[in-house]
Amino acid sequence: MKLTSRVLNRTALQRQLLLERSALSPVEAIERLVAVQGQDVNPPYFGLWSRLTAFTHDDLTSLLYDRRVVRGSLLRGTQHLALADDYAWVRPLMQAPLTRARQAAWGRVTAGVDLEELVALTREHLTGRTLSRPELRDLLARRWPEVDPMALGWSAQALVAVVHPPPSGTWNRGGATPFTLAEEWLGRPLEAAPSAARIVSRYLAAFGPASVMDVQAWSGLTRLRPVIEAMPLRKYQDMEGRVLYDLPDAPLAPEDVPAPVRFLPYFDNLMVAYADRSRMMTAEQRKAVCVGAIVHPTFLVDGVVAGRWDLKDDVLVLKPFAALPDAVMAELAEEGARLLAFAGAAGGRVTWRPPAA
């Protein structure tokens, strides 16, 4: 069975809670999404606000303080918020891509460092306490004074499972990132040998149908084809003939279901969930949204990316990629006013930057 781009789009939006705001609790929503990108502190709040009917800042902040949600390096080696129960098995799966990324970035600089000793020393420094990245970096530099301290700090973060306890990661709280051992914060050890099939199933529930390359692009894992082909999954094709996999009983959304405008924050996982992102944006739009390591905030019109947005000094600036009908602009302005209110800028204003000629 071949699936049109519009069916894939509507199905992705449905599974991402973006066709209509959901009454799920924040815990249920984060579990549904597998993990919420947390590279910066405020985007997870905006992402959940766009998906849930009655979400407040305190809803997520309290989960971080209660240790039910934790922040640390997960998918693609980047910062994510995940349920503590999920972190315990997702983080071990991510060790291979984290190790690979560390070697690519810092392998030459740390060529003379015994990595097993680095891991042991990092754990020794963190046992029973929390350190900032500069503090940990400086302690490690005492052992290897000839090595770039930044390389030591990032290597430690990649090779040792650490989380960043609050107030780090809470609304408007940037600054120094604290480190503490994940198993101490969670109060239990991480899983020793979790199955890759488990994360494939969770991904498909949140983003499917999708190809092997899609799953790998989202997760950072490699060599998943044998895993996926051994699973009892349903197979489709897209209009280009690519094989797509899905959970056997997962429903597809009708292609004619309406999709309201939605604002997605920096680094929203939906923007990087696929190797082929044509169900969400054109190739040209992708160049404007995914710029180097940055994934810019976007707004969706009729389910697809229609522009970027930025919020500064109580002003929400909308930057459409093309001219929009007056009715759509009015809908975006109304949703934008709600976004401003959520951000604590109820007296702010929505402005427009005309699309490039």
Automatic annotation (TrEMBL):
<keyword id="KW-0238">DNA-binding</keyword>
<dbReference type="Pfam" id="PF06224">
    <property type="entry name" value="AlkZ-like"/>
</dbReference>
<protein>
    <submittedName>
        <fullName>Winged helix DNA-binding domain-containing protein</fullName>
    </submittedName>
</protein>
<dbReference type="InterPro" id="IPR009351">
    <property type="entry name" value="AlkZ-like"/>
</dbReference>
<dbReference type="GO" id="GO:0003677">
    <property type="term" value="F:DNA binding"/>
</dbReference>
